[in-house]
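Hey, I'm writing a tutorial for new members on how sequence and structure tokens pair up, and I'd like a real worked example in the thread rather than a made-up one. If someone can provide the structure for the chain below, I'll link this post from the tutorial.
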Amino acid sequence: MPLTVHLLGLAVFAMGTSEFMLSGLGPDIAAELHVSVPTAATLTSAFAVGMVVGAPAAALLSLRWPRRRALLVFLGAFLLTHVAGALTSSFATLLALRFVGALANAGFLAVALATAVSLVAPDAKGRAASALLGGVTVACVAGVPGGALLAQLWGWRAAFWAVAVLSLPALVALVRSVPAGHAQGAPRPDARRELAALRSRDLQRTLLLGALVNGATFCAFTYLAPLLTDVTGLAASWVPVLLALFGVGSFVGVTLGGRYADTRAARLLTVGTLALCAGWPLFALTSSWAPATLAFAFVQGALSFAVGSTLISRTLYAAPEAPTLAGAYATSSFNIGAALGPWLGGLPVSAGAGFRGPLWVSAGLVAAAVGVGALGALRVLVRRGRGRGRERVRA
């Protein structure tokens, strides 16, 4: 895998750390900026909305730019929003900065996906996408706990400074490693051509599957901590262990996705999605038993990210004429899932069903994904049958 892809992964690691770290910083931010904890939680919502809106908008804006310029503009803007966030004393300003930072994050990820797959062979898009997305999983394992530790030692602003510092070497490295112009021999980017390519039903189905699977992932992930303490009955000191197991599992899943997404994607998606569909109910039924809770955190994390990263690579394969916008819409669809999943998971909790409820919601979302996939497979079989029938008539 080219070094540039790993350098892009370093930037994605910094961005992933920023996206998830607010879950541990909310109370401190609320206390210092004189807002309620629920109000501070809107910082996470602002980031999610920025990711959903920003991916296609920023990708369209930068479509005619050389990729190095686009990557540097987006990463530079992301870095500056964190410097400004570390310095501000206004919650309204911090909220606006989170939204702008998410726009930059989304634009960077869309262009980075297109850049990564352009640097490898046409049949290695899955490995390139997985190498890039590995930065997100490493952020779950190391970046988010590290940010929480910095906040405990020196305050929440230290976490913002850390993200800015992490972004700086990636910024310098991209100047040296990404070509300044458009890729040699590649067609000039064209917004109309890329938008037309996005009308593919296969692509739209893949995006829907990504939203459903990622919605299930974040629905369960959001409520793992209270599940562990209230249902499993373990002390709060076990929460970092549980989250680390989920993070390690996600890294294993992305690695497996990179290995098989290019050659055995259909089998991986079929087996992985069915396993997820069975795993979430089993997790719910056995969550009062500590070994099962810890084991399922790892297994479901691995399955979720193996399927999710493979779906992203399938998006890029489904729209080769729209590499930038395909990556942008994949980013948006996955963040739609990340935004809706926790909200849907909160409905049974608010209704008094307890913290097993989100696991059942995750099971329902994956079951819907299985249904969408089955309908797509049936449509392909019908299409093939009609094609064979026409051939027989002509014969």
